[in-house]
Design brief:
Strand order of the largest sheet: 7-13-12-8-11-10-9-14
Number of strands: 14
CATH topology of the largest domain: Dihydrodipicolinate Reductase, domain 2
CATH class of the largest domain: Alpha Beta
Helix content: 25-40%
Distance between the termini: 63 Å
Radius of gyration: 23 Å
Shape: globular
Number of domains: 2
Structural class: alpha/beta
Order of helices and strands: HEHHEHEHEHEHEEEHEHHHEEEEHHE
CATH architecture of the largest domain: 2-Layer Sandwich
Number of helices: 13
Length: 415
């Protein structure tokens, strides 16, 4: 065997050490800008993974991201951010600029997680919680402009709740060329059975079921529908009109053929955890139904029934142009560690490392705008709302795969 002289070995060892240090330094530093951080809030189950791993217990896989700083808008009695900040040595700044510059005068982080989903905020006239996303994003933009550079931004759930604010955020993203993505965890999680719209196939109709509030959970349902719709022949072309029906008008819509009741039955048959109660009709179980109806530019129609009292899951069925249909349940782990957030965060992590969104940001531009218009329609008693602002065309870039089976969930505690 060849012998390597010490004087040759030393530079090799030094180079190896420098490479290891350099590799360690390449872990992106992330600022979290959030409304509130309490137990099981979105901040806890998304940003908490940077501190406690994907199983939220310090075990197993960790994201390749370092939580460098925090800005928290509200500190309720159940606040968890200050405790975690002390435990993990993460500074909490009084301003968004401070969190992005780490107390300096220039941008000093490699990525931003904007998580504005919980906290005490007023509702808009249409019934949408007015989380301060535009204000927060505006402060981020100021730091970008002052620093002369941008970093990737992930915004949890919708871009904003108001048409004007959605347009303003998108304009800033385009103007400064900010790598940005947003959205729900639903497009990334488990499907039972593991079905997806066949890429490039003509689609005729989609019917889905949802539950809970029309704004917060209605948005999830829209993202579920849109991640399927965008895969149809020609890709996405935009939405030309929406309406939101309620009460008896929902059942009349089914009778008149406004939506395919057979597809609704197929979607309901996919309920996984809580099937419909036997011996009761859907109309008997659901006292206050609401129906989102979306008419796309190319003729596709999608309908989402919010069926509180009968449904506590998201399921969906779709019909191809040749009459074939498929259906599935989009399953969330409703117990800690809420592993569906792992795959949402993995998408954000990928963008922060590469500068390229893991799925089309246009998807959430479309769903954010659609939700606002649907809530306007709801307020107007089901009036059809034309949506020229939603003539958004794009191609699908996210290839969904069934995630590994999650570890057993731990009981949800309030702490």
């Amino acid at each position: 065997m060849f012998r390597i002289a010490r004087w040759l070995l030393l530079p090799i060892l030094t180079f190896s050490f420098q490479f290891a240090v350099h590799a360690q330094e390449k872990i992106p530093r992330v600022a979290v800008i959030t409304t509130v951080w309490h137990h099981n809030s979105h901040s806890d189950v998304i940003a908490g993974r940077l501190l406690q791993g994907h199983t939220l217990d310090g075990q197993g896989e960790f994201p390749k991201l370092k939580l460098a700083s925090l800005y928290v808008d509200q500190f309720p009695e159940r606040d968890k951010s200050r405790e975690l900040g002390k435990q993990f040595g993460v500074p909490i700044y009084d301003t968004i600029a401070g969190a992005l510059t780490l107390g300096g005068d220039k941008l000093a982080v490699d990525g931003i997680l904007l998580i504005a989903e919980h906290g005490k905020y007023d509702e808009s006239p249409t019934g949408s919680i007015q989380f301060p996303k535009r204000r927060m994003f505006g402060e981020i933009v100021k730091v970008f402009e002052a620093s002369g550079r941008v970093v990737p931004v992930f915004s949890d759930k919708h871009l904003e709740d108001d048409r004007a604010d959605i347009a303003w955020i998108w304009e800033q993203k385009q103007r400064l060329k900010i790598p940005m993505m947003a959205g729900s965890s639903l497009p990334t999680l488990w499907r039972y059975p593991p079905a997806d719209v066949k890429l490039g196939e003509p689609l005729k109709e989609i019917v889905a079921v949802s539950y809970h509030r029309l704004d917060t959970y209605g948005f999830h349902a829209l993202e579920m529908v849109q991640c399927l719709a965008e895969r149809r022949k020609g890709g996405e072309t935009g939405i030309k009109q929406v309406r939101c029906l309620s009460g008896d008008a929902v059942w009349e819509a089914g009778k008149s053929g406004l939506f395919d009741t057979k597809l609704l039955d197929e979607a309901l048959a996919r309920l996984k955890e809580q099937p419909l109660r036997p011996g009761k009709t859907l109309q008997e179980l659901v006292k206050q139904p609401a129906l989102f109806v979306l008419d796309y530019e190319d003729g596709l129609r999608a309908s989402i029934l919010t069926a509180n009292g009968a449904v506590g899951e998201w399921t969906v069925a779709w019909r191809y142009g040749d009459g074939r249909s498929e259906s599935t349940c989009f399953w969330t782990q409703e117990a800690r560690p809420f592993m569906h957030f792992t795959y949402l965060l993995k998408g954000a992590e990928r963008m922060i490392h590469t500068g390229q969104p893991a799925w089309p940001p246009e998807r959430t531009l479309l769903t954010s705008g659609a939700l606002d218009a649907l809530l306007v329609s709801n307020k107007a008693g089901g009036k059809a709302i034309d949506t020229p602002q939603l003539k958004v065309a794009y191609q699908p870039t996210h290839a969904w795969e069934q995630p590994p089976e999650p570890p057993a969930g731990r009981p949800i505690d309030k702490q």
